[in-house]
Amino acid sequence: MKKEYRIKKEKDFHDIIKTKKNFANKHFVIYFKKNKEIKHFRVGISVNKRVGKAFKRNKLKRYVREFFKYEKNKIENYDIVVIIRKEATNLDFENFYNSLKHVLKKKKLLKKEGKNEKIHI
């Protein structure tokens, strides 16, 4: 993911979480804040050490980055923090993708799409 699409600073994470706009399912918690200065979305990813060893946490972060790469054109101008829960470790990429998509759709952070549009891996 390009640098301009990332949230790295701790202050930015805290500012987004402070807005208390969030949504969760069994696998993810997302916090979001409307981004008025930048014309595209930005994403921060957080995975607790209790989720697993470093290779497992890194794999999950790669999945999230890949999701946002696929859905780049459908995402509104928001700053989004994705917190990955331990239950997400057992998912394959397709289920991971669909679960994250579900969370973003529920809060209308994804633009509308046509019927029967699914991931093609």
From TrEMBL:
Assembly, per entry: Consists of a catalytic RNA component (M1 or rnpB) and a protein subunit.
State the UniProt keywords alphabetically. Endonuclease, Hydrolase, Nuclease, RNA-binding, tRNA processing
Annotated function: RNaseP catalyzes the removal of the 5'-leader sequence from pre-tRNA to produce the mature 5'-terminus. It can also cleave other RNA substrates such as 4.5S RNA. The protein component plays an auxiliary but essential role in vivo by binding to the 5'-leader sequence and broadening the substrate specificity of the ribozyme.
Q: Lineage of this protein's species?
A: Bacteria, Bacillati, Bacillota, Bacilli, Bacillales
* Name of the encoding gene: rnpA
InterPro entries associated with the record: Ribosomal_Su5_D2-typ_SF, Ribsml_uS5_D2-typ_fold_subgr, RNase_P, RNase_P_CS
Query: Which Pfam family is one of this chain's hits?
Result: Ribonuclease_P
* Catalytic activity from the UniProt record: Endonucleolytic cleavage of RNA, removing 5'-extranucleotides from tRNA precursor
Question: Any keyword RNA-binding?
Answer: yes
Instruction: Please give the name of this protein.
Output: Ribonuclease P protein component
UniProt-listed Gene3D superfamilies = 3.30.230.10
UniProt entry tagged with the keyword Glycoprotein: no
Gene source species: Gemelliphila asaccharolytica
